Amino acid sequence: MSRAVPILLIVVACLLVLQIIDRWREPQQLRAVYEASQRAAAASERVAGELAALRLALQERPVPLPARGREEPSSGVRDGRPRLGVNFLLPYDRSHLRPELIGGTWRTFNATPKGFNPLLDNSADAGIAHDLVNDTLCMRHPATPDRWSACLAEAVIISDDWKTYTFKIRPGIFWQRPVQAALPGLEWLDRDVPLTANDFAFTLELIRRPEVECTALKSYYQDLASVETPDDLTLVLRWQRKVYTSLSASLGLAPLPRHIYGRHRDGSPIAAEQLGVVFNQHWFDELGGIVGVGAYILERNEPDRLVRFRRNPRHWGAGYHFAAIEWDAEVKLPDPQLVAFKRGQVHTHGLTPAQFKSQVIDRGEPRFAAPDPQDAHAGRRGEFGWEKVVSHSYSYIGWNLRRPLLADKRVRQALAHAFPKERILADVWFGLGRPQRGPVHIDSPYFDPSIPDFPYDLARARQLLTEAGWADSDRDGWLDRDLGQGRVPLRIVIKSHANNPTWDSALLIYRDELRALGIDLRVETYEWKEMLRILEQKDFDAVVGGWQLGDLEPDFMQLWHSSTIDQPRSSNHVGFAHPRVDELAERLREAFTPEERAPIIREIQRLIAEEQPYLFVRAGGGVFVWQNRGPYQPERWLAGVTEGLDRYHPFFNRTPLLWHFVRE
Amino acid sequence: MWAYILRRALWMVPTFFGILLINFAVLRLQGLSLADQLLDSQRGGDAERRVQAADAAIETHLARFRRTGNDLPALINLRGFLTTEDLLAQLAACERRPGYDETARARAEIELWLLGPLVVEPLSAILADERLARWHGPASQALSLAAYRPLLVEDLDRLSVAEQSRLRARNERLKQLRIHHRNTAEHGFVTDDPQAERKRQELLALLREDGSEFARRWRRWTALLLETGFCDFLSKLCTGRLYSETRRAYAFAVIAERWSVTAWLNALAILIAWAVSIPLGVWSARHAGTLGDRAVTVLLFSLWSIPSFFVATLLLHHLCTPTSDGAAWFPNRGLSSPDHLWLSTPAYVLDLAWHAALPLLCLTYGSFTALSRYLRANVLEQLHSDYVRTARAKGLDERAVVWRHAAPNSMITMITLGSGLLAELFGGFVFVEYVFSIPGLGTLMLEAARQHDAPLLMASTVISVLLLLLGILIADILYAVVDPRIRTRYG
């Protein structure tokens, strides 16, 4: 009996706890049901509205849609290469779209951006969202960065010695209706608003307002003299001077919805003088919204959990094949992400070099097909598909040219000869990425393979060092030389970003090679913010760094021009100064056509490769993996990989114009 | 007893503020300086372009710094006491001279621009002094920025429309009245504005008109402690308006979304840690020296020496990764299944237990060692004391001797250990939450630290400090409950 009482008490307590949990869950369940019903109602209403609008539009203006392929045959003039006085844009290309493949949800890992404001939030993740949701006036395919094709603009005429741009905007494009239109008080958003030239003018006005906090963007539009909109579909930009960057700044402009950012939450227009202040903390951003004219509509945005885009049924262009795209932001570390990928929680993913080695090369996961040196596409066959991809970035070791030790070109060339690039790429990066040789990315059409190369050759390195006056005079095993204040050993401290095991291994191999030459290489690693401080104060002999560019069109002012050396936050942190490169870089800024640009770029890359201010190491690359089983349709991923997906797979990062220093 | 509790509780208040003060100071010291932040935003382009861009953006930055309270000195505001001479020295530091260091110069210039309304008086004095004509150009620029009143979103509600347009007009006027000047390495500051004299007079007149707004006779004393970053932080903390710039949301709103997961995992972890450690400790004490006791000690210490993130990763790889037939022992992420709302309550509880099992294991196994080994030592000590011998001599059952006499008297150390447990677990959470992708406070804090999101970090610091203090208070109360000596001392 005495034993029964505590047991009974425990049972009663358990039941009580269950009851409490039950009560606690009830409101959550009710809310979920309510929200689901609201969503369903809003969706059906939206579909009905869209159908009615489509029907109306068809009755009014029956435009035959081009079934497939280009809008019109591309003539010799419309080859996409910028020139004066004619519409040079390639016609908009919808040939990659295969209607039978449209459908399905593409789920992948991506961090949720802190905000989606196209002017204020310039993180890489926000950039991908902008690409999905919005379109630009003209566009370039990453593979052919020197060719522009029509997009929101049907035509552009450049005149007045590259200073005036006249755009003809495509008629009949409508802004997306944001999902926030279902919120109480925001019903006024639920209407069709056409895209006009005024939206672009509005965007440029905001960028140029002093209060608007988009400092990085502002500098591109400093030289913009005026913006005119003679009619709703014509946009004229006039620049003060002829600068090459104005080409991308004009042609790559994306519009902002004036009917949202120009209004208060209640729909009333914002007074002109308040516009800048209100824009910095706009109500639409606080709702986590983004609206564009592009192929995808932002449907859900739950910070650090999920972002979901659905295909815009009324998009004017071709877009991608997925009916919806979801970003999973909950899993943040590489290993848990791989586990989640294997459980089928995402459809595509990217592997780290170490994961590629353990999972694919060493066959740690038999569901990946074995690599086959004969067949680059061998990875497509397994239950999990994999394929190598490239990215528009490169990594390097930068030598501080201010240091007397490294001031001699021959020493730097010797250091390059001592770096076993091929072996390190094969053994440390496991074949991900290719050898980079000069300041122009090897995938750029301007890359010149005949520039000076410094292959692994210790004998040649030793010879160069001897020529430069370095010898082991005190027989302690290390090279030394008199640099004015007694003999100093050739000791180099290389600083790199902490938590990068790949680079750590690469530097260990390099250290051993240099030891054989009598050069003492020491490696120190630092936190990212500390690395930035080190670069700012030029407090290094050598640094490991990386640059990433959205497109492959070279520009040398930011990284290599001597005028930038002593500026705060200079990108020319190695202190490279070469009068001829300065002159050529300035000339390149005023050269617009490929015929003018190619010889200049060829000479610059030759000079820089010869000087070796950087030891150029590796052009970026990674491994893209995807699900090949169950409901997933591999042909959709592959259509994506070869056609469109390479524009925004995890390694391809579209950032405008500037080189970005990345964590290597 | 109550006097004792009150006394302990009152001590928490200065402790709380002390910790906040130190935290705030450390955060301010390690963050990027404002000058660096400002320079950071000007990337690319040639020198001239970047200077232009910095110039164009300065008002933007002023508004942003004002909104975050970053434009104010951290703890003590001495700007009201800056004299004309101090400002002349600062102006001299902004001048380009042969062999100048541009980074240091730019920093000095930006510091001058951010001094705010308290230096309007001395700067006006410089501008009014004919003999200092050389400095009038840069002084007018600094003055126009010191008197600049950025309009923030909350001002649109707070200020009347007339006041808003007055401020806007004044800001515009201030900008127009800057005296153009050049700053070159050969000549230093040279004024090249034909209308310099007119602008100077008008600027002085404009500021004289609003003289009361910039008067600093009394204000400098109140500003000394009140117009500081810390005070600004405290007022925002008390009104719940700590705003996270990177997340575009109020910090407490972000935390409110996340805290519940962490809180209940915490509670369960503590419960399990104690529920396992106490019997284990007592058992070890009773069987001290036996093979079983030694085996347990060795096992516990080897567990203790394996870091939890490592164990978590191992568990994830071996128990959460599906084999080729698609089955896995445990879920790899989150604390409940995606469809948990539609499970029956018992099934929901099982689902929770299934999800929480591995994270809880990783969180608790480390604390078994410390807790149970301390308890073992204490109980052993008690078992050898006289009163236990007396109890045994009295013929008490061994179980009663241990559980009624020895164990409660060993609890004082356990309470001390337990008070720190709350805060300790808070830290241990970070890795486990990361590996098992649980959206709780730990991941939030780590992300905030990575992004240098000071308001969010401070808000979560406040919470963890409160937790720590709460733990200590509970420990203090428990001392009084367990230890009759404390009760008698405080009557």
Oligomeric organization of the protein chains = heterodimer
Order of helices and strands of chain B: HHHHHHHHHEEHHHHEEHHHHHHHHHH
What is the global morphology of chain A?
globular
Count the E strands of chain A. 20
Count of helical stretches of chain B: 23
For the biggest sheet of chain A, the summary is:
8 strands, mixed
From the N-terminal CA to the C-terminal CA of chain B, the straight-line distance is 6 Å
Distance between termini of chain A?
71 Å
Architecture of the largest domain in chain B in CATH?
Orthogonal Bundle
Low-confidence stretches of chain A: 62-74, 642-660
Number of helices of chain A: 19
Integer-rounded radius of gyration of chain B: 32 Å
Number of domains of chain B: 2
How would you sum up the global shape of chain B?
elongated
Can you count the beta strands of chain B? 4
Report mean pLDDT of chain B, rounded to a whole number.
82
Low-confidence stretches of chain B: 42-49
Structure description:
The complex is a heterodimer of chains A (664) and B (491). With 664 residues, chain A is of the alpha+beta class. Chain A has 19 helices and 20 strands. Chain A has helices at residues 4-60, 124-133, 197-208, 215-218, 245-251, 258-261, 275-280, 283-286, 334-342, 353-361, 409-417, 421-427, 458-467, 501-517, 528-536, 557-560, 579-589, 594-611, 634-644, and strands at residues 105-109, 138-139, 149-150, 153-159, 164-169, 224-228, 234-239, 296-302, 306-311, 324-328, 348-351, 384-399, 434-435, 480-482, 487-489, 491-497, 520-526, 542-548, 614-627, 660-661. In chain A, strands 11, 12, 13, 16, 17, 18, 19 and 20 form an eight-stranded mixed beta sheet that branches. Chain A has a four-stranded mixed beta sheet with strand order 1-10-9-8, covered by helices on one side. Chain A has a four-stranded antiparallel beta sheet with strand order 4-5-7-6, with helices on one face. In chain A, α11 (409-417) packs antiparallel against α13. Chain A is globular. In chain B, α17 crosses α19, α17 runs antiparallel to α20 (411-435) and α20 (411-435) crosses α21 (441-450). In chain B, β3 (243-244) and β4 form a beta hairpin. A two-stranded antiparallel ribbon of chain B has the order 1-2. A two-stranded antiparallel ribbon of chain B has the order 3-4. Chain B has helices at 2-30, 34-40, 47-68, 84-93, 102-113, 120-128, 136-146, 153-158, 161-176, 196-209, 211-214, 219-226, 229-239, 251-286, 291-304, 308-319, 345-383, 386-393, 398-409, 411-435, 441-450, 454-482, 484-489, and strands spanning 181-184, 188-191, 243-244, 249-250. By secondary structure, chain B is mainly alpha-helical. Residues 42-49 of chain B have low confidence and may be disordered. In chain B, 71% of the residues lie in helices and 2% in strands. Chain B contains 23 helices and four strands. Chain B folds into two domains: 33-241, no CATH class; 251-490, MetI-like fold (Orthogonal Bundle).
